[in-house]
Design goal:
This protein has 196 residues and is of the alpha+beta class. The protein folds into 2 domains: 58 residues; 105 residues, Immunoglobulins (Immunoglobulin-like, Sandwich). Strand 7 and strand 8 form a beta hairpin. The termini are far apart.
Amino acid sequence: MPHHGQTSHHTHKKGHTKAKSTGKMKFSQLLLAFILITLLSVLAFLLYTTYQNKKSTSPNSISVNRPNQEIPPGLVKAPTPYLVLPQGKQEFNIQGGSGDIPIGKKIIADPLDSPRGSKQTISIDIEYNKPIDGVSVAVDTDNGSKTYIMSLAAGDAKAGTWTATWTMEDSHEKNFMMTFNISYSGKKRQIPFPIR
């Protein structure tokens, strides 16, 4: 027969083990509950953001809602909704350029998006510390390239506006670029002007 003290000691030991396993079970249940709550929160957040993105357009995006596909007379339809060229006379300032080369300051296109068969006038302001010998512009369109000689319309050969006018003979829905070719002091410099 065990002593009274031994039995008490043994019973105390059993109670301690039960308390320990109950503590482990509570911890694992709490951990499982925490993981489930976290997963549900992430899922709810993802569903909410997906709903919001479908509901409204981002402020940095451009959307075109055009129920009528007819184009009013005088307007030109761009090949994609992503690049619609502005109509009429447009002015572009040229940034940068330094050193011993001619510097383009401003380009004016009148109009920028001229349809086939219409007139287009392009001018560029150029500055250099010596006289410019001449300027031409190569116009690349959908089916080819044409070069036009520009004339000095204002200012002088050191700081002047060079201009050319032509009739647009080709479409420019996919490819439209101009390159200004400047001759100076027996050298040449190009200023590219990509449009489309």
